[in-house]
Shikimate dehydrogenase (NADP(+)) (Polynucleobacter kasalickyi), 284 residues
Amino acid sequence: QDVYAVIGNPIAHSKSPQIHHLFAQQTGQNMKYGLLFSEVEEFEKTVQEFFAAGGKGLNVTVPFKNKAFAMCDELTSYAKAAGVVNILWMENGKLFGDNSDGLGLVRDLMDESDSLKGRSVLILGAGGAVQGVILPFIKAEVASIVIVNRTFEKALELVNRFEQEAAALGVHLGALESHWIENLDEPFDIVINGTSTGLTSNSPLTNIQANHLAMICETKDKSVLSYDMVYGKTTVFMQQMQDHGFVVKDGLGMLVEQAAVAFQVWRKLPDLAKLDTKIVLKTL
Ligand code: ATR
């Protein structure tokens, strides 16, 4: 039986085993998927032992996505662009790494509409979680992506990094200092919290900024979607957006969608059509 696992610290809370068991059921695949805890300083050793024992693939979660990236012999274009890896597998004795977090987010957002083409996206944050979503948004041919971060230089660095790909597909990519939110006069279709504030009781938006965003986005109509990449709780950001009447989603759908891509890569499925992510999301 092929063995897979999700590696992290902590890991007990992970919903990945449940998600992958459901995908295995849907596609009639005989596989096992478990939880793998690792001490922070023993990550590389734990990964090596897992594959040496015949393990087929790993999902990687906090805080190991950077370390996983550094270990790989081969990286997909999404992994290279993201600088972090959430999927590992062995092929011909080489460790491969991919990143499906961004694609997972884009696929989850697409549930709301057939395509993200022409949409305008505001992304709050420029850390590890956000790096991985820029390329998938560009490939989805959104109209514009504006990255806002407390530390402006990090937002600018992301813009510089993805400038060429964005230009090639006609996507406007820009960076903005946090306080400039109050000067924005263009409404957005999608507002995403990609900061780590969801894990705390903070929000990347001050009340004034949240009010201002609500004011400008109101001119779009109430279908403006706000999204927090964190799941399992209503974050302060989500609450702020809800208070202004926006449609709010948490990152659970993104988790299921990134898992679907991992499952497809590992099991070499020709496409994702056989995986019913909506049913899986309902059962979580
Ligand atoms: P992750 O892997 O979760 O993205 P990270 O790489 O440490 O973690 O990035 C955290 C992100 O959340 C950053 O964009 C950070 O802003 P800075 O680059 O200015 O540090 C953002 N962030 C964290 N706490 C924040 C807060 N209280 N207000 C606004 N942004 C915050």
